[in-house]
Structure formats: C-alpha cells, structure tokens
Amino acid sequence: MKHSNISVFVPHNGCPNACTFCNQREITGQSYQPTPQDVINAVNIARQYSDTKNTEIAFFGGSFTAIPRDYMLSLLQAAYPFVKSGEFYGIRLSTRPDCIDCEILDILKSYGVTAVELGTQSMCDDVLTANKRGHTAQDSVDASLLIKKYGFSLGLQMMTGLYKSNDEKDLYTARKIAELQPDTVRIYPTIVMRGTELYDLYQNGSYTPQTLETAIPLCAELLQFFEEKHINVIRLGLHDSDSLKQNMTAGAYHPAFRELCESEIIFKKTLSLLSAHGITDGKVKFAVNPKSISRFIGQKKCNLQKLADMGITPIIIQDSSLSKYDIKMRNEE
C-alpha cells in the first residue's frame, strides 16, 4: 500500500536561526500558524477521500521540536487520537539536528510520532557556518543516532548548491548521510528567495547559484547513489507553489525536477551503451521498462533531440522485465 502524508505547515516557527537561504513564508506560501482545530480539519477532510491506515499526519515547514512547548503539545494532542485509534499510521515531523534530545524524543514517542526528519542540509561544517545554520555536522550525527535508538523512522534532508558549497562537498554530504542509514532522504537544490541573506549575496556577486543545467547532473548522481544504497528519496526538488515561483530569483527550480533527473540517468546510460558498442549513428533499438519510456524520451523530447543531434534514431520497445533505469539495445542494420 502506498504511503501518504497529510501535511500541516508550521512555517518558520521555533527556528532559532535565520539561515542565509531561508524564507519559509515564501517557500510554503503560508505565514499563518495552524491551530489544533486546523489539524483536526485537515484530518477530517483526508479521511473522506482515502484509506488512511498507511497515512502519517505530517508537521513540516519549521523546527517542530523548537516551537513553544505548549503549542507543540497542542498540535500533537490534536493529531494523536487519530493515531491511537489506528485510523492513521502515525505522525511525521521535521526539525533541526540541535533540537533533539532524550526529553523531546520521550514526548514524541508518547504522542504516536513515527518519523522524525532532520534538516541536516550539509555535512560540511564550513558550509553550515557560512549559511548560519547554527549547528554542526556532528549534531546531525548525534541526533540521527538518537532518533534511530528510540525506534523512530529517520529522514534526512540535504541541500545542493549552498553558499560556499560545491559538487564535491555535496557528494561528501550524501556519503555521510548514507553512513547514517536513514529510511528516507529529501534533496533540495538551493533556491534564491527575495528577503534572504542569500539574495543579497547573489545580488552583490558573492554567490553563484546552481542552474538547472548544473544541478540536474549532480542530483541525478545523488538520486542514483541513494537508490543503490536502498535509501528511499521521497522528495527531489521543492514543492511547486505560486508563492515560490513569484519570489524566487535564481536557482535550479522546476516543477518536475525529479523527472528531469531520472531522464538524465537514463540518458547517461544510453550514451554509455552507445559508446561501449562503438555506435555513432543510425537506427538503434532500445528496450526499456514501459514505465520508463517517458524518462527515456525526456521532457519535451529532449533526450530524443540530443540523440538525433548525434545522428542516432532510437526505436523504443517495451520490456517489463527491466528495472526502472535499465536499458538494453542492439544496432539495427
């Protein structure tokens, strides 16, 4: 059964830092702080339309375990009865690595929390310092180990293209995250939002943001890396919203960013096959999984166009025995 979330955003509430990149109000399109009744209303709407037994009530958008304690408890108390009854699977939340300790985890356990996601963002201390995160890479390690010890599902979030980072550091972050064996990972390319310090750094030329052309190859590599480690990448790229599109000024944003990365993986495998067989032009038959045909073609047929520019005319056949990224081929005489 497919897992799903009912998301309740608690924008920027509780976070003790103003990170260089952060403008939660514009990212989520929301500044309103939800009430316990909002949680109940969201749950009641969801239960009308779907089977909720594999659904988590998710508190995202801020540092949930750092918000005022009474407010945090009121939101948990609103959600918990639906978990206790067995109607919903559990509660998921996101927070900062330095806002986790045994007391907090005891509270979360008592209210039916099942998953804790940490905004690690980078595992390089110089990048964390430059972006004013207010925590260290070791904080992420310590919090992750404690969360796993308590039996929660662990999710880790990383960002690519941060100020003072680069591809090498982002790949290092991915490797360090994988060593912690999280259950899930989210990957967010950095977006420059108005009203942030990063926007000022971008405007004065101190920061060069990623573009789609630079972020897609890197994030495709990260996606493939985590999948090979059997770590589920549950999000790649920011959620689409009108507020985000209106207030972002630069960065690697696309509403179908994951699809672009998956197409990049397929295209690189296609090039490797062509090279291995010494094929430089002509008609070539490629067998792919039926569910991966769109990945092979690429958005707006970009992969087909790149192959055509090389003199390759692909003939696509379906093969359900192949996995998501697998391709087989033979040259058509």
Give the CATH class of the largest domain: Alpha Beta
Q: Please give the domain count.
A: 2
Superfamily at the CATH H level of the largest domain? Answer: Aldolase class I
- Alpha-beta classification: alpha/beta
Number of contiguous helices: 13
Q: Tell how many strands the DSSP assignment holds.
A: 12
The name CATH uses for the topology of the largest domain is: TIM Barrel
What is the percentage of strand-forming residues? 15-25%
| Overall radius of gyration | 22 Å
Strand arrangement across the biggest beta sheet: 1-2-3-4-5-6-8
Give the topology string: H per helix, E per strand. EHHEHEHEHHEHEEHHEHEHEHHEE
State the end-to-end distance.
45 Å
Shape: globular
Which assembly state applies to the chains in this document? single chain
- Poorly predicted ranges (pLDDT <50, ≥5 residues)? 25-30
Q: Which percent bin holds the helix content? A: 40-55%
For this entry, give a set of tags.
333 residues; alpha/beta; TIM Barrel; 2 domains; seven-stranded parallel β-sheet; three-stranded mixed β-sheet; 13 helices; 42% helix; globular
Would you give an account of this structure?
The protein is built from 13 helices and twelve strands. It has 333 residues and is α/β, with parallel strands linked by helices. The chain has two domains: 4-255, Aldolase class I (TIM Barrel, Alpha-Beta Barrel), CATH 3.20.20; 261-331. The strands form three sheets. Strands 1-2-3-4-5-6-8 form a seven-stranded parallel beta sheet, covered by helices on one side. The protein has a three-stranded mixed beta sheet with strand order 11-10-12. Strands 7-9 form a two-stranded antiparallel sheet. α3 (69-84) links the parallel β2 and β3. α2 runs parallel beside α3, α7 packs parallel to α9 (212-228) and α9 crosses α11 (257-276). It is globular, with a radius of gyration of 22 Å.
